[in-house]
Amino acid sequence: MTVTLADVAARARVSPATVSRVLNGNYPVAAATRERVLRAVAEMDYVLNGPASALAAATSDLVGILVNDIADPFFGIMAGAAQSEIGRPEGSGRAGGAKLAVVCNTGGSPERELTYLTLLQRQRAAAVVITGGALEDPAHIAAMTAKLTRLAQAGTTVVLCGRPPLPAGGPGAPIEAAITFDNRGGGRRLTEHLLALGHRRIGYVAGPPERTTTRHRLEGHRAALRAAGITEDQDRLTRHGPYTRRSGHEATLELLRRDPGLTAVVAANDTVALGACAALRELGLRIPGDISVAGFDDLPFAVDVGPALTTVRLPLAEAGARAGRIAMGREAVPPGGLATMGATLLARASTAAPHD
Amino acid sequence: MTVTLADVAARARVSPATVSRVLNGNYPVAAATRERVLRAVAEMDYVLNGPASALAAATSDLVGILVNDIADPFFGIMAGAAQSEIGRPEGSGRAGGAKLAVVCNTGGSPERELTYLTLLQRQRAAAVVITGGALEDPAHIAAMTAKLTRLAQAGTTVVLCGRPPLPAGGPGAPIEAAITFDNRGGGRRLTEHLLALGHRRIGYVAGPPERTTTRHRLEGHRAALRAAGITEDQDRLTRHGPYTRRSGHEATLELLRRDPGLTAVVAANDTVALGACAALRELGLRIPGDISVAGFDDLPFAVDVGPALTTVRLPLAEAGARAGRIAMGREAVPPGGLATMGATLLARASTAAPHD
DNA sequence: CTGTTAGCGCTTTCAG
DNA sequence: CTGAAAGCGCTAACAG
Question: In what residue span(s) does the HTH lacI-type domain sit (chains A, B) (predicted)?
Fold first, then answer.
């Protein structure tokens, strides 16, 4: 029923091989012949059979992008940038190069992460870009390392974006490259900003435990505190939860219950900060008059919430684009396969000196 | 190098056919044999070759989800819900059913929409879910109709989510179903709310022209005005632009320049409303004291901006999930293939009676 | 520059 | 319930 390469070849009065060649543009074909083939393709509305060509060529034009939460712009921005780089036609006016960049939503679940990787392996994906922080569970790290090793063996290029190479400081999975963010430095600078304003009792609403992103941001926070000579037990002033508004809301109430003397709350990211702000408002506290709040990521809405959120900007789009280009082999792999992108403090209206 | 079905068969001492049967679980196999095969699969770390099986079976386990802007939670929420339904294993403990739901970001570009559809057709996708409003350009409608027709002929199920069937009230493309939102009704109720508060001069920051979503929301707005006896030329109080914060910002300034007497601004969606709020604040106007602002969609951040945004809630997750289930044949197609989901007015703090 | 010839790895009748 | 055999539609040497 559907038209095949052979049908096109018959109509163009050439061999199937020739049709394949003009379609893939990777082999010299006489201009006249090419045109005749192209005309036949157009006339017959021919669409290449992806599976068949993938089978024969032992590689497909599918590129997977894994994200933890597709409804979160943090991932959407990275994925969009990566996808647009990957979908971009190759430099010269070639017919090939058109890759199908697809994003897969793991929902933050380690099992689904592995499942998607298997599905992508099954499709013989040309490359895989994995975004967002990783789970630091030994079993999962082992499973991921094994899976990525197999993917690499099968010829799939693996690039991490916003995630450190796995395992953190171990033998390492055979990835092409890793683009990471300076979460630790960003966290440190954010807290230094608060300390400079005069804050001493700072609550911290952390992300889910065992996530690299969570740990690094928290480490930066604590390093700043330590450097300022604040040595008291910080665990009491820290509460872990998912990267959601709701978690920020609950955690803030809880932290304030534990220590009503807090003058500032630092959230694991902007979304969590939104929940913190809401909780504070419900308590009748003014921001930053009564208490300061800070986020992380600088998502587009951060500047619009009331008051504009002090946060740390991460070059999400740039990182995603870079990961996409590396996955396509269009950008040199950074030295050591590792590139860290800066995190910039953005001091806005939600932080101010504590009210004596 | 990589292990094939035949390798597994050899190790399990059965024929390749048998291995295929246990893997697909669609044919009776003796329990003992099945177990032997499964063990061999596990021991050899075998992963099915997707392209080969898709070629042989003439269908793949790929399902595409098209979105206009992956960085926008409006799409992220729908896509996430759809993807999670599609990725969900089938009811019974079957091995099959595991579909690879992938989201494709068109960036709102008609060409890329068509390109992705072709790529998906090339992959012999099992189904395609297209989210978001459609472009009402005759040429694009024709191209889409043709493309969707070919997809359907090739056995791909097409479901629209948040988009009316194409062409609007014409012969219609052969889609399985369309889930739409009551954008018109929502728009009408939102403006009725403003009118009830006493507003008479309302600026409208519309979305991109020629988009169904834009048109329907605007129609609802104008219907409410007409019903209230406001007959003056509304074009002067309307300005089109992309669904971005920046557009909301610029358009609001422009509308206020055209008519400084505006007492309210209605935005095409929450993101645009954010830009409108920012512009108003820069002008030193208080919301809602000096001027009211309303959005549309009720994205998660809407309640957190200052002041909390009056908007219209759309059941995005529910619509996406439903579209996903229909695409998988797990939910009955609604009567006439068309289901409209309600839009609920959410009156919050950003709207109030005009200040005399 | 173009045609011929083998498969790629799997599914699927069709027989047992 | 299981095996044998015939392709699915395309690409990739290899000749010409």
Answer: 3-57
